[in-house]
């Protein structure tokens, strides 16, 4: 079996929760896309990162079913693990800074995959949502390739920028709900135009902040699981 680390990204204040991330530190052991996709499917994490150049921060990101040019929690996790000033992804160069217990990346909303940002009236409504059946994940009543990717959110405290969110990827890869999703948080920040403190899933925390010239910072706590 290929060696890999497991991180938890966007952990809560007590260090719990967060989204698991697989990281293959030596990407040269699996240089081909097909082999990487197969391993990502076998591991079953929402994303797996392959590090192609640890000094330059060159990374390659896969879900169990497809390759992504950019993704939020893999970049935050890789930034923490590699401790480099930037990451190089197919979407572009991602800025990195480490600030105490938080690891931050700086990226652009147009790099994030399409998401349906669906607002609800209260955090309680978001908490009560069932996982959408696959056949109902599309707003048109029929799923597309794997179904619609829904980011359900509501204000917990609008004045303070506190948000409650849950994520339903709609993919046919066994991941019915994503615990913490940096790319969706980035898109929501771009839409609202303000800094956010997001509680997602069971208790993960994602922080965001708009920056000049269309850049957005996304940050959170990272822990080495194994």
UniProtKB/TrEMBL annotation:
Domain of life: Bacteria
Gene3D superfamilies assigned: Diaminopimelate Epimerase, Chain A, domain 1
Listed Pfam families: PhzC-PhzF
InterPro entries for this protein: Phenazine_PhzF-like (IPR003719)
Stretch forming the signal peptide: none
Location of the active site: 47
Gene Ontology MF terms in the entry: catalytic activity
Protein name listed in UniProt: PhzF family phenazine biosynthesis protein
Organism: Streptomyces capoamus
Phylogenetic placement of the source organism: Bacteria, Bacillati, Actinomycetota, Actinomycetes, Kitasatosporales
């Amino acid at each position: 079996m290929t060696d890999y680390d497991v991180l938890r990204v966007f952990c809560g204040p007590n260090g719990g929760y967060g989204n698991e991330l697989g990281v293959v530190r030596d990407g040269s052991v699996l240089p081909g896309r097909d082999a990487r996709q197969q391993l990502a499917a076998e591991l079953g994490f929402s994303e797996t990162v392959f590090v192609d150049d640890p000094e330059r921060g060159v990374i390659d990101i896969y879900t169990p079913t497809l390759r992504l040019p950019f993704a939020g929690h893999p970049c935050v996790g890789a930034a923490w693990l590699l401790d480099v000033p930037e990451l190089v992804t197919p979407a572009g160069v991602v800025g990195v800074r480490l600030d105490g217990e938080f690891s931050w990346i700086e990226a652009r909303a147009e790099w994030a995959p399409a998401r349906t940002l669906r607002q609800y009236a209260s955090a309680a409504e978001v908490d009560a949502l069932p996982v959408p059946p696959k056949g109902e994940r599309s707003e048109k009543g029929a799923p597309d390739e794997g179904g619609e990717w829904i980011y359900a959110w509501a204000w917990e405290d609008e004045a303070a920028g506190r948000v409650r969110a849950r994520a339903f990827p709609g993919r046919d890869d066994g991941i019915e709900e994503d615990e913490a999703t940096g790319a969706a948080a980035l898109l929501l920040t771009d839409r609202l135009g303000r800094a956010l403190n997001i509680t997602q899933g069971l208790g993960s925390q994602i922080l965001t902040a708009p920056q000049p010239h269309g850049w957005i910072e996304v940050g959170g706590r990272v822990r080495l699981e194994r």
